[in-house]
Amino acid sequence: MSPLPEFAFAVNRNPALAVGLPIVLGIVGNYASSEIRSKRTGQAAKATCPPHPAFSYIWMAASGLTGYAAHLTVRSFDAAVTPQSVDAASDALVLYYAQLGLQLLWEPLFIGANQKQAALANSLALLGTAVTMAIKMNDLATTPISTNWFTVPYCAWIAYTTYLNGRVVLAQEKH
């Protein structure tokens, strides 16, 4: 039996919802973080965006890819015939939601609250969770296509953003 409610599976049974959920949550989080920062700094919300406009689009695309991997994971869960394969798919989906939560927490920490070190700790946890999720999803034998096509770009993007976050923290410590 999975620790997740049925809703967590149901939303990922529909590929459009599975892809759309992390994208919509990311957009809402971006807007909220920008508003928090604009109130804290007095700058307009548009002035608080990432340094390059492509940053947000890459983040959304990578998040959508993991959403499709979650869809494939639920398909594996539904097709599972042994308790071990049910548990494996369930564990992978738990990791998916854990990394989604960590991903949604990063922006309010980094942008909204200006807590760069806490954001770096969050990003390291996110990277570890995402890599573990990718490995677990790849181990599911019943997916019609390898989830690596969807999870590896996401993990690479998280590694890159963790590196950037680390550079910001090091630069702050030098001053």
Automatic annotation (TrEMBL):
Membrane topology value: Multi-pass membrane protein
Compartments (UniProt record): Membrane
Chain segments annotated as transmembrane: 15-33, 54-74, 94-111, 118-137, 149-170
InterPro entries, alphabetized: TspO/MBR-related_sf, TspO_MBR
Gene Ontology cellular component terms for the protein in this record: mitochondrial outer membrane
Gene Ontology annotations of biological process type: tetrapyrrole metabolic process
Primary location class: membrane
This protein's UniProt keywords: Membrane, Transmembrane, Transmembrane helix
Alphabetized Pfam families for the sequence: TspO_MBR
UniProt record similarity statement: Belongs to the TspO/BZRP family.
Protein name from the UniProt record: TspO/MBR-related protein
Record organism: Cutaneotrichosporon cavernicola
